[in-house]
Amino acid sequence: MTETKAKTTSKDTHAGMTGSQWGRMAIELGPLAVFFIMNAQADNLFGVPENQTIFWATGAFMIATAVSLGVSYAKFRHIPTMPLVTGVFVMVFGGLTLWLHNDEFIKLKPTIVNLLFATALLGAAMMGKPLMKKLFDGAFDLTDTGWMILSVRWGLFFVFLAIVNEVVWRNFSTDFWVSFKLFGVTPITLVFGMAQLGVLTKHAPEKPDDETAEAIQTAK
Fold this sequence. Notes:
Blueprint: H1 2-46, H2 53-76, H3 81-100, H4 104-126, H5 132-135, H6 144-171, H7 174-195, H8 197-202, H9 210-219
Helix pairs in contact: 1-2, 1-7, 2-3, 3-4, 4-6, 6-7
């Protein structure tokens, strides 16, 4: 009976974690969707000149980000480190964008945030500390080697995202940049994340086999 209860609890915890991950993803993508829609439709909805829609989108993005963080805390009683840091930068650079009426600030925000995460991850890895373990908030159970591999890979990936953001916003239109944030960066990040599944499998902590587990349970 105790063994059955343990199995059920483990299964429920895993299922809950998966549902939580999907919920957090939806909450975090919401502000980006608002940003895209407002930039594309502010002229139709509010009669805003086309060259001013980015500022309305930025304001809406800031509000949606604040709501997203609030919903995340209300639902999970915790705000993960990465969305929290990103949210702070949205407020700061969004505020500068609106105050100075210069959209370069909101365009620079992804570059600076990505370089910040890259510096933190790669710098900690050089000191032998797998910082990704803290950023993922215990979402996965990995060995220290696995966490170190993820830390280095994600650190390099954040450098890549920073470079891509610089190339896109400096060489393409504002509308293209906004669209790329939602329909380019998001899928690329999801594909990269899925490509790390092998690390999660290969570097998962070893668990006792059924016979060992049964012996331990009998001894109890």
